[in-house]
């Protein structure tokens, strides 16, 4: 029975209090006095901490604060510096690359997307194009990134920045972070090449974006479909990553144990009913359609009965798999995100029917199944915003 | 973007350091100098903290410490006080009641079990018997409990101490903690009636016992079968309880979506294949056998083919449901606990086959499926040990 951790220290206290003050300012413009009142710190302590944050380019003054109604000189309002450290995000898709810059407030300052068939291209070629795009958005935004994060369509292992498996790209054991640095140098972005580079699964980042920007509760399950089907499980405000970093593989949860063979080697996995290829096949369309989500949405909206039936069948399978997830994890909400968000209109009725019939041993409310407003923008937003959130969470780090 | 929490304070630091020092002593006898070396605290600070812990009856001196090899007077070894605050656990089963006392070191000092048919008895009658048993073990142990925790076979809600649903007892919305206090007073245990009383689901407590006493990794999934099938999901050392406290309901994960009707209202739930009634039925035995786990184990050991087949079929269904859990949660280990532990010999081969065939998109090693040594003792141990662990985690609380 051992409790871990080091002794509390004055240095640790100051670092924690820097984060506390910055968190209050991030929640909305405030005077020093308001920050003091809300944190319980003394006015003098707040002033000293704010000076340090301002020197680090994190906090700026923005005219007079909201009048307090009290007599005396109104304090100036403190805000997050709009020209402070930024978040640089990249996204490797099967059929596209994208990059964006968000400022310290989480606002998008640049966003570029390029259609590229990355399937079966070498990692070197893909990373060279991504480096170029990252340099472009960074130059255009004119801010200084604090770090880079890249969303990838595959399993990311415990080893830093390594994609263990991305079958839809044909990648296995690719060291993305290590490969991106020289690519950035070759693209003339030497400044970016020295930054911390993080890699994460697109479904995880989509779920985190939903948590940070989508106004979701502290515990929810975010489903997304891009090349594969993934889930991000947010529990008590944190992403559940699993013992080896592979949590959230909803696509290979068994839906019908004797169902069709799955390329993964198992049978009857959710992807055999609700994945890109399965839905296209059920709808009578060829596989590898450009923008399969958009294509299915257009056809369903136009009244294509085969497409609507295929999506309803996918919704049934999603409902069965999600019943298992709800029983195991008890999320406050289940959010249909990524490509599924655009197909919600045709997936939801069947999903709702399954959940209503099957989730019976606990309370279940139809309203707890919702659709993401971020949709397919989620993973890239999550990548970039994660960088600035790390700065906000620990502004005292070197 | 708001960071929660109050400012760090001197008082909070002392409280954290009390826990840090006590944690080192709990991990094994140590001199004051060793505690100082391991925690990074000064020798003087350690002495002052130890004095406070000794005054609270938590720490005792136990002869000379292990010789350090250095010249000088050997320090005395500090140990957890064997007569310090104790943990008092209770268990309400469908066919039994039990209670135990563990000391601060987690060692069992008293353990009593009584066969009682609690099914459809009133909560008042059950709680009166439980109060009597709690008084008996507490008197016999002669220690002062710091609190009481009770394991119950049902869903425990977010409201403190309320069993929302225990279908196997015929209970719904029973305020166990509130009912136990007057029952303890009527049993003449006025001292116990004033203690904090916690209630938790038996599967959760069995999983926590496995975490604390079973030497498991920080993230694992513990399966148990008593009246129903439950799972405890331990993630990063903490029990995943879910947004409404209902996580771990493995028994109602769909195994075959068109399978037999379940009393819960759904179809093809795991309990229809691997629950008590399903296995007894498949084995050709009448329902409601006294000690169904022991009976099945005896018959299987004696070579009863029908029982062995029934257990293999249950193992197949468990393997399918656990595949879903492994894909979603990525535990480092899956532990067969509770009643399943005694049936492992006949459940495991089929479970292993399913997991080997179905868990393919991530690493899976046969050795990650293990059997609990605590078995059916887990929930009561977890209840009592949880009380003393709360004391150890925050010895500075009032």
Radius of gyration of chain A: 23 Å
Largest Cβ-defined interface? A-B, 76 and 76 residues
- Major beta sheet summary of chain A: 5 strands, mixed
Cα shape of chain A: globular
Indicate the proportion of strand residues of chain A: 15-25%
CATH architecture of the largest domain in chain A: 2-Layer Sandwich
Q: Helix/strand/pairing class of chain A, anyone?
A: alpha/beta
Question: Portion of residues in helices of chain A?
Answer: 40-55%
Oligomerization state of this entry? homodimer
CATH topology of the largest domain in chain A: Nucleotidyltransferase, domain 5
> What is the count of DSSP helices of chain A, taking H or I runs of 4+ residues?
14
Mean pLDDT across every amino acid position of chain A: 91
User: Strand sequence of the main sheet of chain A, in spatial order?
Assistant: 5-4-3-6-10
Catalogue the unreliable spans of chain A.
Answer: 1-6
Question: N-to-C SSE series of chain A?
Answer: HHHEEEEEHEEEEHHEHEEEHHHHEHHEH
CATH homologous superfamily title of the largest domain in chain A: ATPase, nucleotide binding domain
Domain count of chain A = 3
The counted number of beta strands of chain A is: 15
CATH class of the largest domain in chain A: Alpha Beta
Termini Cα gap of chain A: 34 Å
InterPro entries (chains A, B): ATPase_NBD, HTH_MarR-typ, ROK, WH-like_DNA-bd_sf, WH_DNA-bd_sf
Family (chains A, B): Belongs to the ROK (NagC/XylR) family.
Protein name (chains A, B): ROK family transcriptional regulator
Organism (chains A, B): Kitasatospora terrestris
